[in-house]
Automatic annotation (TrEMBL):
Its EC number is 3.6.5.4. The chain holds residues 1 to 313 of 535 of the full protein. This is Signal recognition particle protein. Residues 99-293 form the AAA+ ATPase domain. Residues 100-313 form the SRP54-type proteins GTP-binding domain. Involved in targeting and insertion of nascent membrane proteins into the cytoplasmic membrane. Binds to the hydrophobic signal sequence of the ribosome-nascent chain (RNC) as it emerges from the ribosomes. The SRP-RNC complex is then targeted to the cytoplasmic membrane where it interacts with the SRP receptor FtsY. The keyword Lipid metabolism does not apply. The keyword Nucleotide-binding applies.
Amino acid sequence: MFASLSDRLTATFKNLRHKGRLTESDINATIRDIRLALLDADVALPVVKQFTSAIRERALGAEVSQALNPAQQVVKIVNEELVAILGGQTRSLQLAKNPPTVIMLAGLQGSGKTTLAGKLGKWLKDQGHTPLLVAADLQRPNAVTQLEVVGERAGVPVYAPERGNMGGHDAVLESGEGTRSFGDPVAVSRQGIEQARARQHDVVIVDTAGRLAVDANLMQQAADIRAAISPDEVLFVIDAMIGQAAVETAQAFQEGVDFTGVVLSKLDGDARGGAALSVASITGRPIMFSSIGESVKDFEVFHPDRMASRILD
Ligand code: GDP
């Protein structure tokens, strides 16, 4: 991910390094290159504008004209502004004073929520927590089974509703009929949290349903779950390969469930990825984790400064 953005920016800076003093036209040319590289990488237009105007203002100011090495100073500014766009500081999970900490996952179907539940569960378990995964995606019985498989791989227990009464629903639901489900996801989320309390799990991760596109009924369902369980964190999982739809999708989820943090998934892919990078800036919510593969280990805390260095490497 970001290989072509990274190559373009590196090439831009290479041109700049040949020069000693920088004229205004050198700086304008550099900013034009940066702008095109970001747009080609699918970074959202308002983010590109904000980014390039911050760079222009600083690059034309004293910090560059008085620098011993102006080109290096410009690179430093770009790095700092990129860190800012990516959310600034690394933000860690907000743990509840009175456990269990409740983490709700939201996002489009296929974005990687269920996979993330396992990864996050394992990551927490490795730090000495005792997480419980809760299957509140009841649109597709397969989703419950999938969470159970993921939980088993991660070595993290799963709370799932009884499925004795779901015969035949799979076919109906998989054919995409409305938002009928084989259980009440709000009730299941509540019961999962009660179970966590009873069995002394200190973190609960609630997996919720998503659609391939933003869907009013499912957004309402997610909002109802949020209202019922008052999570400490609501993580919006977004597939980094989503392209330009990232901004619209993120805004819809922000409005629907007011998420507290973002998880970028599928960062191991070779898509341009810039749209996903725009999400923190557009929503004002930090990117907290990244998912970088299908295995339960392919998971990292997101550090804006490290990501910026990787892109500008
Ligand atoms: P959900 O519908 O949001 O719960 O999404 P899933 O967790 O079921 O993921 C959808 C598909 O994406 C599955 O085939 C996963 O194996 C795959 N997937 C999830 N996260 C990643 C990731 O970080 N990298 C890659 N390459 N694939 C992923």
